[in-house]
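> example.struct
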């Protein structure tokens, strides 16, 4: 009996027992060649092109808005615009320096309220056991708040603070913005803390660390890039809100305080409300200032988002 002749590197066994080790022996490679005449290849290329086209189509509104802001707002952008007070009707020149300061102050107040509260809440949620009903309720409430209409946050702050204190203020605006920032910080920070490897926590427990030490020395430092990403995204959202500030901070044509003394208990200007007010005026100067303010606000939000993305990429590469 004669066995089939197979190269030595493709056979094994002894005597007449021959096993073919070539897994591609019965495959016709010509069948795998790409050709538009084959339905599966044509469908693959069609769907790839469709996805690319839809992606470019989705980017059209974004780039059109940015280009429009650069065209209309960039023409009038200057140092004077960024440092002067808003002009009166029919007055030429002016700027919105007080609105920039007011926006920064109110976002900072919102951060002072929401960041510590959100991070501590996320630590509790990340450390809670799956059967903890209260933690599940808090997590559900945070998810609901992510879709919370911003105007309702302003109405809430208006009823609780503005009516109680008897006037509009930067503090009330900061509280309204903190309500919008809180769920983003809670959910993103919880995810970042949960991504910390279990072995790191077990090693800390093995060394005799307490729960508090594990949180402050292991969980939070390791999850810091992810936490900062959530904070930056929350700040970017708060900086562009208008409706809550209409009910809480209102607007002002003056600086927030005198000299280095800042009074947060008085009406305060913000970029978003300034754009809302000036864009509908019949005066060309105010409309031009609204374009410049929109450009400045978009740049501030874009920079904040880029910082958040940088922290996010750092966490992924760790």
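> example.seq
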């Amino acid at each position: 009996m004669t066995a089939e002749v197979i190269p030595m590197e493709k056979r094994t066994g002894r005597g007449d027992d021959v096993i073919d080790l070539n897994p591609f022996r019965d495959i016709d490679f010509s069948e795998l060649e790409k050709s538009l005449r084959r339905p599966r290849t044509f469908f693959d290329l069609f769907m790839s092109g469709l996805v690319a086209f839809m992606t470019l189509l989705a980017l059209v509104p974004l780039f059109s808005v940015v280009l429009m802001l650069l065209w209309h707002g960039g023409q009038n952008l200057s140092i004077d615009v960024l440092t002067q007070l808003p002009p009166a009707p029919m007055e030429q020149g002016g700027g919105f320096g007080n609105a920039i300061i007011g926006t920064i102050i109110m976002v900072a107040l919102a951060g002072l309220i929401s960041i510590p509260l959100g991070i501590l809440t996320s630590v509790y949620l990340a450390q809670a056991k799956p059967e903890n009903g209260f933690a599940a309720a808090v997590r559900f409430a945070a998810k609901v708040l992510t879709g919370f209409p911003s105007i309702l946050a302003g109405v809430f702050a208006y009823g609780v603070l503005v009516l109680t204190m008897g006037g509009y203020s930067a503090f009330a605006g900061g509280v309204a913005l903190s309500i919008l920032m809180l769920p983003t910080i809670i959910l993103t920070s919880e995810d970042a803390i949960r991504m910390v490897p279990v072995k790191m926590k077990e090693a800390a427990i093995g060394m005799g660390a307490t729960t508090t030490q594990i949180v402050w020395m292991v969980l939070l430092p390791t999850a810091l890039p992810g936490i900062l990403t959530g904070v930056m995204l929350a700040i970017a959202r708060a900086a562009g809100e208008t409706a809550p500030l209409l009910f809480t901070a209102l607007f002002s044509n003056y600086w927030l305080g005198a000299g280095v003394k800042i009074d947060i208990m008085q009406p305060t200007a913000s970029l978003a409300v300034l754009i809302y007010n000036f864009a509908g005026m019949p005066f060309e100067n105010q409309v031009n200032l609204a374009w410049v303010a929109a450009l400045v606000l978009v740049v501030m939000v874009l920079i904040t988002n880029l910082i958040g993305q940088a922290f996010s990429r750092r966490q992924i590469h760790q």
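> remarks
The mean pLDDT is 86.
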